[in-house]
Design a protein that fits this description.
Order of helices and strands: HEHEEEHEHHEHHEEEEHEH
Bound molecules: 2-acetamido-2-deoxy-beta-D-glucopyranose
Largest sheet: 9 strands, mixed
Number of helices: 9
Shape: globular
Distance between the termini: 55 Å
Strand order of the largest sheet: 3-4-2-1-5-6-7-11-8
Structural class: alpha/beta
Number of strands: 11
Radius of gyration: 22 Å
Length: 336
């Protein structure tokens, strides 16, 4: 009897929430959806109706219950419901929101209303069309925001980004070609997902992974099975958006610049021996960077005491007992 029960437990499919910022009809996300399902997972795809790259953590909700503009590639159109299921697949949903509000839409609306007894075991963001490297993208990227939003909700999460930049409609781009970058990325997503969901050890709370794939398949010569290399977010090559002002046209444009200061010699947390993910990317080898990051933004105790020494004069230990004000005993309706 025991082995049978054991087998039964092993067979309970894990559930993955899949999202992105390039919309629910992008080729990369559809290839990954297909392969995760083929691998036996329950997959619920919930993603923006239209392109929301660069929206960072913005938390948009639909303006009314109808789309006010056409969705990406006209798959859904102005006047259609602002959220709903894809006509062809009831596990694929769109929402006229941003990546982080799509995760909330999944957790707070779709799953409670349309799925019985489902808990999300893992959120996957991407694979994005284009890399998401360095703090500059960590804060700007919609894909990354879906992942850190999920982590703040207590659900393990990984962001994947491809080097294939084309904003591609799955009805144009999805095929069985084993050199199609979307298919190669999907396969690598499944590889990592299996390891994580099979492991007896969970990824620690507040810790996420950011994976960046190199150019592959028919967009690169000799790379159809990139290896994974551990990396870190900061470090040499780190870059940030910066501004350019043009006198002639009296206008601004933005560009990406290499940051100094936090980049080269500065390493207080993390494994300082690891290469930066940007350096891994720029090696232009058949290597994917894997950064393990934390959403715990508090500084460590040494850093806090340094700051305390600087501003200590204005700090006061109030002696107030703040415990009684902390959630969940707090009724927000009293204060909001
Ligand atoms: C990029 O994507 C668009 C939309 O799916 C498609 O029409 C076009 O052929 C693609 N371009 C390349 C170079 O793959």
């Amino acid at each position: 009897m025991l082995p049978f029960l054991y087998l039964l437990v092993l067979c309970v499919a894990k559930t993955i929430l899949l999202t992105n910022d390039d919309s629910f009809v992008s080729t990369n996300i559809r290839a990954t959806y297909r392969d995760l399902k083929d691998a036996g997972y329950t997959v619920i795809l919930v993603a923006p109706a239209s392109q929301r790259s660069g929206y960072a953590g913005k938390f948009d909700v639909p303006d009314g219950n109808k789309l006010t503009a056409d969705g990406e590639f006209l798959h859904v159109k102005a006047g259609d419901p602002a959220w709903g299921r894809d006509d062809d697949d009831e596990d694929i949903w769109y929402f006229d929101g941003t990546p982080s509000s799509c995760v909330a839409f999944a957790l707070d609306y779709v799953i409670p209303n349309y799925y019985d007894d489902v808990d999300i075991d893992l959120t996957i963001g991407g694979p994005n069309e284009g890399p998401n490297l360095s703090p500059g993208f960590y804060t700007a990227s919609g894909t990354m925001s879906a992942v850190y939003y999920s982590l703040y909700r207590g659900i393990p999460a990984i962001s994947f980004s491809g080097s294939n930049l084309n904003n591609s409609y799955y009805k144009d781009g999805l095929d069985d070609d084993d050199q199609n970058p979307a298919n190669i990325y999907a396969k690598k997503v499944v590889t990592l997902t299996k390891l994580i969901l099979k492991s007896k050890t969970s990824i620690p709370n507040t810790v996420g992974l950011n994976v960046n794939f190199p150019l592959v398949g028919n967009e690169a010569s000799d790379c159809d099975d990139p290896v994974f290399q551990l990396s870190r977010l900061l470090g040499p090559g780190v870059f940030m958006p910066s501004l350019k002002y043009d006198d002639l046209s009296d206008s601004f444009s933005w560009t990406y610049d290499f940051a100094s200061g936090v980049a080269e010699d500065y390493c207080v947390v993390g494994d300082c021996n690891l290469p930066s993910e940007y350096a891994v990317f720029w090696a232009l080898k058949c290597i994917s960077s894997v950064t393990v990051f934390t959403i715990n933004n508090d500084a460590n105790t040494d850093q806090i005491s340094t700051v305390k020494n600087i501003i200590g004069n204005v700090l006061k230990n109030t002696g107030e007992d703040f415990d009684e004000y902390s959630a969940p005993s707090l009724d927000l309706s009293d204060v909001l």
